[in-house]
């Protein structure tokens, strides 16, 4: 079987090239192996309950090659659903397989790890909340929950448990360090504390309502999520949004990227106790957020993108404000970059900390910004550009170093590139409508949306019965990158962890759903 | 000798140091805020925080021992004692002969041992982590601090702080190159011992990077207030110690009441300057990697020893 063995078709909205096909258990393995050998990457793995259609369950995988995105579906029997695991090919699949079991009870045979992942004793073992016959309103008494962490034995080894409640106000996650002195021998992560049943909630929504929830999966990536969700709706309903709407979306996505990179650059310096950096970058970011609030009604641009188009237009006055603001950032950014690069203390903290070599990054399937800092030169806006990026010629930023300094450098470069893109977008933005109504859909349909958020690729897969969403899967790039953090910290000192963690800045909420 | 006005003066001085200590920290934080283009919370903020903490209910770990509850009082008491030993406004106070500089270092060590033990008492990972790091930093800082004191002792032929200050401030003007080395070393020790940047970051909420803060994570309410306050006093004591050793001009002699207003003015001016200087230093620095801290303190020790060598070269 060759890969790709399908004709990649553009999504009807003119977006990413995709192919969609069903396979059997043997074909599933062969297909994934072929994709792996050809350098393909796993973007997402999710299960669905197809019993309302008189079938069993299904497991889906989205694989990315330079030609396009391939969506693979393996139907599973209703009794004892199981499928061949693929975590030996794509290590990132492991946690996705564990999550699929916790939510749907579909079993990955041959997987390296069968411990629970999202289930924290909020529901009993053997109960699966994403199955359609669970109404979503049942409550359970809290279950006893002991998670078997991997123990490291040896002379002088001890454990430091950190979280899920931290000293600062941050999202909850548990990190179990096995250390010798201050050196980290092993880090094991435990997530799922913010699991709130988002995917279950989608089941009661129709396509148009879903975008509000999709935009709240991970607040710092609301534009990427809303766009990916809308793209999935549009591909499902087979419509194309008006050109102006697409260009406005790109404007917001780049602004979201710049705002997040600015914030991260400030916090990275602050984690090295260089608070000057934080105040300077926070100032720049805050100006952007206030502009968002004034022009588009929300500081983080929530609910600006809707299926079929966008909700807010941009007038000449707003355009002038954005251009002036971008000019100010373009002026300040090189100065701050120089301060960072010339600061010996800061560079000493950044250089060599949390190194992920390009080989490790390739093996683990690191994605997005962290991937590009470790030589994984993938950017959806470059390789499979959805409109309007096909007309923008995005320059990709990357590094081979893979340390905190590389992730800082990539952020600086990407912010600069996004500022250039914003000028281009404003220059070339076409006129016209900003919204097309979604037509009535009928019958079973599948839609896919994919967008390069500031962290990496955000994927939204929608299975619809025509009127309501049957299954919505929203995939955050943090799924791929959280396991990498366990490797990045190896051999580093414990007090360097927060800085390394911040240099990835992954989402808990987008991961736990 | 009639000692009661002196005793009264001693009392006034130590109360003054203890009550003004939060103001010094507030001033440093305010200067830092200005240097970062922020408005800042004002120099009185540490008082508000202490007030808040004193009015909160204490939360204790179930298995916390008496040591855990006692440690804040021991620390506060030792810091007050340390503050009383340092001549701030006047020399030759009745309390000063009670302890010399070596004893002062001992008082600091005494309070540190109790805080480290208390940190390990409740058995959390962070308590012992912080205690371990604090000990790493302080066992390197202590010898450097002693060396700094010996520089001053060589000049004044005494380890009594009052005698040192007397010699340095009221005798014939003389430049001491050895004291320049000692001053640099002292500044480095001050930063390390008071959990300031670049060795520690007092403002961080990242528990894994903490040194001093990690030890006090389990404390709350009045216990935490006392620990915080004693840290303020420690910073104040170190700063006044620096002033006494390296810029003692303007200090009043005991019983010389007329010189007191001038001494107060000089002290406030010098503290203000020192606070601004510290803020500037902290704004310009990033925090060192933990394993660079030994190098940092090794440099401090080396500088202090260089100071001693300079002194011996001069008199030989």
Characterise the protein shown here:
- The complex is a heterodimer of chains A (513) and B (316).
- Chain A has 513 residues and is of the alpha+beta class.
- Chain A has two domains: 101 residues, 2-Layer Sandwich (Beta Polymerase, domain 2); 315 residues, Cytochrome-c3 Hydrogenase, chain B.
- Helices cover 40% and strands 17% of the residues of chain A.
- In chain A, α4 packs antiparallel against α5 and α5 packs antiparallel against α6.
- Chain B has a domain of 221 residues.
- In chain B, α5 crosses α6.
- By secondary structure, chain B is mainly alpha-helical.
- Chain B is built from eleven helices and two strands, in the order αααβααααααβαα.
- At the A-B interface, β8, α7, α9 and α15 of A face α5 of B.
Question: How are the secondary structure elements laid out?
Answer:
The complex is a heterodimer of chains A (513) and B (316).
Chain A: E1 9-10, E2 17-22, H1 25-37, E3 41-49, E4 57-64, E5 69-76, E6 82-84, H2 93-104, E7 107-109, E8 157-162, E9 174-180, E10 183-190, H3 198-202, H4 207-214, H5 222-237, H6 243-271, H7 275-296, E11 305-306, E12 309-310, H8 316-342, H9 344-350, H10 358-364, H11 368-373, H12 380-383, H13 404-428, E13 445-452, E14 457-464, E15 469-475, H14 478-488, H15 497-504, H16 509-512
Parallel strand pairs in A: 2-5, 6-7
Antiparallel strand pairs in A: 1-2, 3-4, 4-5, 8-9, 9-10, 11-12, 13-14, 14-15
Chain B: H1 4-35, H2 45-54, H3 66-85, E1 90-91, H4 101-121, H5 125-156, H6 161-170, H7 177-193, H8 212-215, H9 221-246, E2 252-253, H10 260-284, H11 293-315
Parallel strand pairs in B: 1-2
């Amino acid at each position: 079987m060759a890969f790709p063995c399908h004709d990649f078709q553009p999504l009807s909205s003119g977006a990413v090239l995709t192919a969609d096909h069903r396979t059997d258990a043997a074909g599933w393995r062969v297909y994934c192996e072929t994709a792996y050998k050809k350098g393909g990457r796993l973007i997402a793995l999710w299960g669905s309950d197809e019993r309302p259609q008189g079938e069993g369950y299904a497991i889906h995988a989205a694989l990315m090659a330079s030609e396009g995105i391939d969506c693979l579906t393996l139907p599973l029997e209703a009794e004892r659903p199981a499928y061949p695991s693929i975590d030996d090919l794509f290590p990132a699949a492991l946690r996705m397989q564990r999550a699929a079991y916790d939510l749907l009870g579909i079993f990955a045979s041959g997987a390296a790890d069968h411990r629970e992942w999202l289930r924290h004793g909020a529901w009993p073992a053997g109960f699966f909340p994403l199955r359609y016959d669970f109404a979503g309103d049942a409550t359970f008494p809290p279950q006893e929950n002991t998670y078997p962490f991997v123990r490291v034995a040896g002379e002088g080894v001890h454990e430091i448990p950190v979280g899920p409640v931290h000293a600062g106000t941050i999202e909850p996650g548990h990190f179990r360090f096995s250390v010798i002195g201050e050196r980290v021998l092993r880090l094991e992560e435990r997530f799922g504390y913010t699991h709130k049943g988002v995917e279950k909630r989608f089941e009661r929504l129709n396509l148009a309502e879903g975008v509000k929830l999709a935009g709240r999966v991970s607040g710092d990536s609301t534009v990427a999520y809303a766009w990916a969700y809308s793209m999935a709706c549009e591909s499902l309903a087979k419509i194309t949004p008006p050109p102006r709407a697409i260009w406005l979306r790109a404007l917001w996505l780049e602004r979201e990227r710049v705002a997040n990179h600015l914030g991260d650059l400030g916090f990275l310096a602050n984690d090295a106790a260089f608070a000057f950096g934080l105040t300077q970058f926070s100032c720049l970011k805050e100006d952007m957020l206030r502009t968002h609030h004034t022009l588009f009604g929300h500081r983080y641009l929530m609910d600006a993108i809707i299926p079929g188009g966008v909700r807010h237009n941009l007038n000449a006055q707003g355009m002038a404000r954005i251009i002036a603001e971008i000019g100010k950032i373009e002026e300040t950014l090189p100065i701050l970059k120089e301060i960072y690069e010339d600061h010996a203390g800061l560079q000493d903290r950044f250089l060599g900390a949390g190194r992920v070599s390009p080989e490790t990054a390739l093996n683990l399937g690191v994605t997005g910004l962290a991937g590009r800092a470790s030589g994984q030169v993938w950017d959806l806006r470059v390789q499979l550009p959805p409109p309007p990026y096909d007309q923008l010629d995005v320059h990709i930023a990357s590094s081979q170093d893979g340390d905190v300094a590389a992730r800082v450098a990539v952020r600086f470069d990407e912010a600069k590139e996004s500022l250039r893109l914003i000028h281009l977008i404003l220059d070339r933005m076409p006129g016209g409508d900003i919204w097309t109504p979604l037509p009535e859909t009928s019958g079973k349909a599948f839609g896919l949306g994919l967008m390069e958020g500031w962290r990496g690729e955000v994927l939204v897969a929608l299975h619809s019965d025509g009127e309501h969403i049957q299954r919505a899967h929203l995939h955050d790039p943090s799924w791929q990158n959280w396991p990498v953090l366990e490797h990045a910290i190896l051999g580093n000192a414990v007090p360097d962890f927060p800085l390394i963690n911040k240099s990835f800045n992954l989402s808990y909420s987008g991961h736990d759903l | 000798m009639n000692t009661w006005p002196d005793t009264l003066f001693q009392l006034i001085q130590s109360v003054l140091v203890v009550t003004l200590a939060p103001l010094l920290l507030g001033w440093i934080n305010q200067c830092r805020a200005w240097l970062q283009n922020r408005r800042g919370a004002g120099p009185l903020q540490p008082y508000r925080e202490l007030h808040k903490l004193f009015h909160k209910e204490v939360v204790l770990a179930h298995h916390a021992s008496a040591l855990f509850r006692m440690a804040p009082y021991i620390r506060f008491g030792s810091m007050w004692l340390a503050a009383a030993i340092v001549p701030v406004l006047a020399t030759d106070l009745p309390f000063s002969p009670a302890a010399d500089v070596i004893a002062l270092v001992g008082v600091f060590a005494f309070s540190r041992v109790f805080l480290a033990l208390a940190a390990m008492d409740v058995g959390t990972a962070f308590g012992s982590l912080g205690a371990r790091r604090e000990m790493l930093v302080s066992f390197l800082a202590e010898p450097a601090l002693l060396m700094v004191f010996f520089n001053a002792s060589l000049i004044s032929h005494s380890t009594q702080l009052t005698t040192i200050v007397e010699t340095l401030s009221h005798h014939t003007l003389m430049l001491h190159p050895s004291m320049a080395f000692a001053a640099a070393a002292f500044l480095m020790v001050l930063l390390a011992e008071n959990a300031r940047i670049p060795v520690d970051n007092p403002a961080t909420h990242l528990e894994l990077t903490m040194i001093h803060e990690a030890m006090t994570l389990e404390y709350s309410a009045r216990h935490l207030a006392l620990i915080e306050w004693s840290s303020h006093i420690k910073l104040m004591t170190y700063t006044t110690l620096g002033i006494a050793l390296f810029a003692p001009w303007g200090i009043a002699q005991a019983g010389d009441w007329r010189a007191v207003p001038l001494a107060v003015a000089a002290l406030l001016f010098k503290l203000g300057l020192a606070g601004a200087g510290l803020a500037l230093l902290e704004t310009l620095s990033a925090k060192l990697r933990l394993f660079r801290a030994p190098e940092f303190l090794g440099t401090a020790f080396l500088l202090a020893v260089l100071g001693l060598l300079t002194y011996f070269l001069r008199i030989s």
